[in-house]
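Re-run with default settings, no changes from the original entry. Doing this only to confirm the output is reproducible before filing.
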Amino acid sequence: MEPNTEPHHDTHESDNSHDHDHEDHDHGKGIIGRLMHFLSLGHTHEHHHEYDLKKNSKEGIKALKISFLGLMITAVFQFFIVLYTGSVALLADTVHNFSDALTAIPLWIAYRLNLKQKSKKYPYGYGRVEDMAGLFIILMIALSAVVVFWESIRRLYNPVEIDHLGILALSGIIGFLGNEIVAKYRIGVGKKIGSEALVADGMHARTDGLTSLAVIVGAFGAYIGFPILDPIVGIIIGFMILMILKDTTSTLWFRLMDRADLQLIEKIEKISMNYEGVAKIHDIKTRSSGQSLFAELHIIMNREYTIEESHEITSNLRAGLQSEIQNLVEVTVYPIPCGH
């Protein structure tokens, strides 16, 4: 019997294992250069997987800037109406909008860190910071629910007379529309770039939109002589926020615990089996870190392949998986020779 020359642990490097440690190109030291860099108008790198991660992070930063501006305009508009009407309900809604705008800060920091190169200390990059920002956003959603329940229950026992009903209703409508537009925008971009933290931030904006609905209902209840409608609807909205909190928390918890994505595993297996030289696949594992996905798998190959041929097959497989699966930045393939 000829000695087995096949590798039992072929190279485990992914396509982005080649040198990515170069520094970002200089964007200029002047005002124009700094402005272009701030607005993410500078050029991007052509290395495919690093390019995608940086491009996605810049798109996330852009979404945060635009939505932050939208929420601040909404909150400032409502603040001036609070000064005019003295409405406590609208004041609470305005504070919610300001807090929602400020949740963009930790997420912006996370995206900025994603633009940094991986290092020996952080070989997987800085994606976990993005997930940690998602935890902060979840806490803000929980806080919104607590405030809504507190205000609603307090008003059940201590009704507050509401005036300037038309202006209050208009402000509530603007608050709802402003938050819902931001929510749809953040959620859409978050799903596009694979950022669950940005999706969670969009859900946070949606919860603040729901509190704006309470302002509208409160104004309507006062108009028809049924002011208790305000706290009743507030409690209902509080439970709706809790449902949003449950779904958002579950999604982020699964990511932090590296729960297996069965659909992704099935897709990896289906793609891999289409490659010549791959006889069987097992032990597929995946994990996520922020936007980035990592995968490893064992492939059974015919032992008659040479080392060079085995290396070519695994390299082609890695490249194919990374081109087919969004945000898959690293794939480790273990080739195992079979006896027939």
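Residues 207 and 240 are 8 Å apart (CA to CA). Residues 31-256 form a domain with the Alpha-lytic protease prodomain-like fold (CATH 1.20.1510.10).
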